[in-house]
Amino acid sequence: MSQAATPESYPEVREAVRALCRQFTGEYWRGIDEAHAYPEAFVKALTQAGWLSALIPEEYGGSGLNIAASSIILEEINRSGGNSGVCHAQMYTMGTVLRHGSPEQKRKYLPKIASGELRLQSFGVTEPTTGTDTTKLKTTAVRKGDRYIVNGQKVWISRVLFSDLMLLLARTTPLDKIERKSDGLSVFLVDLRESVGRGLTVKPIRNMVNHQTNELFFDNLEVPAENLIGEEGKGFRYILDGMNAERILIAAECIGDGTWFVEKATAYANERQVFDRPIGQNQGIQFPIAKSYINVRAADLMRFNAANLFDAGRPCGAEANMAKYLGAEASWEAANACLQTFGGFGYACEYDVERKFRETRLYQTAPISTNLVLSFVGEHVLGMPRSF
């Protein structure tokens, strides 16, 4: 049995990602944020270095890393002051193709995703009227000959305009004709290059973080039947199958953010002199930073606990959800401690604190809100009645 990963594991991955990220300074990320632009240069460099294909097996041109090592990649991006949210989806969305796609689909798409010839950065699930009640989604895909005709609407779908492919979850069996609420949903691989303007309309949503997210409108969009992933009607299970990986990877991003905030606050608290002494000498400054550090470290341990279970092929739903919850809580606590430490300067764009503050706040809400994690643990771990 392979040795369990710890925060000290994979130092070669950490250092290589750090070296790449050093090429993209705070000035670079501030410019991207101010222009509401997409960091093409960064994503291209990350792809060419092979980091976005970490979870793709070597036989398809990827690195074949496990989830523990792959999570370190996203952690180090955020720890460097960057934002891995601009490209993280490619790591976990391709898992649906890898685990449930046909041999032909794997051969057709995975090598090109690994090389960067194709980007799979979008994941079309959420709808404006159903939110996280995914089994009630209303977007339909009706089979007609060798194609499916898609109609409906999605919202908060990120990176559509910077991706070649999108995974789409749509209803193929009407809600009133299914036995179980999780039935009747199917997953499709949509070629965005052929779809935008030909049945798919993309409306960007301006938001508080530079997240390149959109509202989508499907009007008789034609999707080839060969782009159905797995069996018709089992798409919800396929999506759930990838959620644990997503939770673990997002937890790692939070840990990267939390570490950045703690290191930034610590350095400033030691340097900043007020009343002839460093402000870090004051308990009101020192203790919140120390508490944040403790909680980030604790979240990190849960991340590796979940990752080790995932990599061993063991159930890890509770651990993955708890890792995401603890990571999101720790990074947000660290963000507040850092902003308070910087005082007025924390609101100045040049210090990057306000940008990272906005970015890490997202993880309290998505993907999966912290309250839904609590309801999951309450019901499925502790055995209490369903809370909603």
Description of the structure:
With 388 residues, this protein is of the alpha+beta class. It folds into three domains: 11-115, Acyl-CoA dehydrogenase/oxidase, N-terminal domain (Butyryl-Coa Dehydrogenase, subunit A, domain 1, Orthogonal Bundle), CATH 1.10.540.10; 120-233, Beta Barrel (Butyryl-CoA Dehydrogenase, subunit A, domain 2), CATH 2.40.110.10; 237-381, Butyryl-CoA Dehydrogenase, subunit A, domain 3. Helices cover 48% and strands 15% of the residues. The protein contains twelve helices and ten strands. It has a four-stranded mixed β-sheet with strand order 1-4-5-8. The protein has a four-stranded antiparallel β-sheet with strand order 2-3-7-6, with no helix packed on it. Strand 9 (273-274) and strand 10 (277-278) form a beta hairpin. Helix 5 (89-100) packs antiparallel against helix 8 and helix 9 runs antiparallel to helix 10. The longest helix has 37 residues, at 235-271. The model has no long low-confidence stretch (mean pLDDT 96).
